[in-house]
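Now read this:
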Amino acid sequence: MTLTVGNFSKIPQSNQITFKASSNLPKFQITSRKNRRFWAKCVQNNEEGTGRGVMAYAARWANMMEKAMAKGSKLEDIAEKTSCYSDTEGLSGCLYNIAVDTLSRVWKHGKALKNWHNAANGVEKDAQYAVNAAVLNINI
């Protein structure tokens, strides 16, 4: 993913934000100003096509999980189901992994999402990165 640096001096200080480039994307909680910048760059560099679909999916998914967790659900109990409901684009496994990795970096509950995703794919809990679930390993 190519990221271009732009003028992000007007990024709001609150955790719930919407950027001009993503004005129709659902809101979700982003952890820090640095991560808000990263999210803004990702969205701005993915205004069309597949990239736009990944950003829209990630925002919808995080928003949907936040709503469920606000009602008392645990992330690990709702992540898979909300992922399916959020995926209106029909993303491939590779694109799903990009969404998981992006949310794991910026979202308030990103670490829990990464741990859930990694555990579902046979990787230890506190691994540094979200595993690429689209990789097939064959042992001979």
